[in-house]
């Protein structure tokens, strides 16, 4: 780490002055909010406020909230973190979202099929208006997927891996993701652990593999939307779907009132997927080791 004098420099900008002519230090508060934990918390508060104001709004309000959340994220990353944002680039966004969506759809479909085959679920047509139900599910889940991924993978995971490396970051954000779902209906210690493994860790591994928010948004969106349309509670939240589901047998098989995420089958599948994506991320050189993270902070 280089040291600089605190005395003013004559004859031009000193080393603490940025290219725009402003003080690059910004004082103690500026240094705090520009640190990884500082911009992480600032961004999470900003995106969280947007989510809180729009998540349960009517019609397209949740989707519009997602657009606003992306703008908040971009602003925090560019102004506070002072970094580019290739992870939210528009180029290739559709392809990444579709790839993630295919994995999310397959994950839920295979899990639900296996649980049904083992006698845990039976489905019947709900008889609700098809378009109204699909429109509502899509709008709500777009908002949820975008805001949660911006907070947990875009902000928290990237900030924590700058300090402690990718491995520590994926463990911490995975655990925090599980704990954050303890307040949902029907939640308990097992459901929190299940969410941490199959969702927190898997979505973290998915981001490390692709380094693209739209990939994990597509995965998250397809996962939640498929569950909702099947009539399965999404993390304890029961919403109107195209089907109604009758639950049979033990909660280990079906997930009980919390829904599919607390069932053993998707936990096993999600953990295997997470392991595979983490291996792909490591092979692709996309992991930040702890020593590199320290150099990022001190160099």
Automatic annotation (TrEMBL):
Residues 1-25 are annotated as: Disordered. It comes from the Bacteria. Keywords: Hydrolase, Membrane, Metalloprotease, Protease, Transmembrane, Transmembrane helix. The keyword Zinc does not apply. GO terms for biological process: CAAX-box protein maturation; proteolysis. Residues 133-225 form the CAAX prenyl protease 2/Lysostaphin resistance protein A-like domain. GO terms for molecular function: endopeptidase activity; metallopeptidase activity. The chain crosses the membrane at residues 37-55, 61-77, 98-123, 129-152, 164-183, 189-209, 221-238, 258-281. This is CPBP family intramembrane metalloprotease. It comes from Actinomadura decatromicini.
């Amino acid at each position: 780490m280089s040291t600089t004098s605190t005395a003013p420099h004559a004859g031009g900008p000193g080393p603490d002055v940025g290219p725009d002519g402003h003080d690059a230090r910004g004082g103690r508060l500026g240094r705090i909010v520009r640190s990884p934990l500082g911009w992480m918390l600032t961004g999470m508060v900003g995106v969280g406020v947007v989510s809180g104001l729009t998540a349960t709004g009517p019609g397209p309000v949740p989707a519009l909230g997602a657009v606003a959340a992306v703008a908040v994220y971009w602003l925090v990353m560019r102004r506070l973190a002072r970094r580019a944002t290739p992870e939210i680039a528009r180029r290739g966004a559709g392809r990444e979202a579709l790839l993630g969506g295919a994995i999310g759809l397959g994950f839920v479909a295979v899990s639900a099929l296996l649980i049904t085959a083992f006698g845990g679920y039976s489905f019947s047509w709900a008889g609700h208006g098809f378009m109204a139900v699909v429109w509502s599910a899509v709008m709500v889940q777009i908002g949820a997927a975008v805001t949660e991924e911006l907070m947990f993978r875009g902000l928290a995971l990237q900030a924590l891996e700058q300090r402690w490396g990718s491995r520590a970051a994926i463990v911490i954000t995975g655990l925090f993701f599980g704990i954050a779902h303890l307040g949902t209906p029907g939640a308990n210690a097992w459901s929190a652990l299940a969410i941490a493994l199959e969702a927190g860790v898997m979505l973290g591994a998915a981001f490390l593999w692709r380094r693209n928010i739209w990939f994990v948004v597509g995965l998250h969106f397809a996962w939640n939307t498929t569950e909702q349309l099947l009539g399965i509670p999404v993390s304890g939240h029961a919403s109107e779907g195209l089907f109604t589901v009758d639950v049979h047998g033990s909660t280990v098989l079906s997930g009980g009132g919390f829904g599919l995420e607390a069932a053993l089958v998707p936990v096993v599948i999600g953990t295997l997927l997470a392991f595979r994506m983490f291996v792909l991320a490591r092979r692709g050189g996309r992991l930040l080791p702890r020593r590199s993270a320290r150099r990022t902070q001190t160099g």
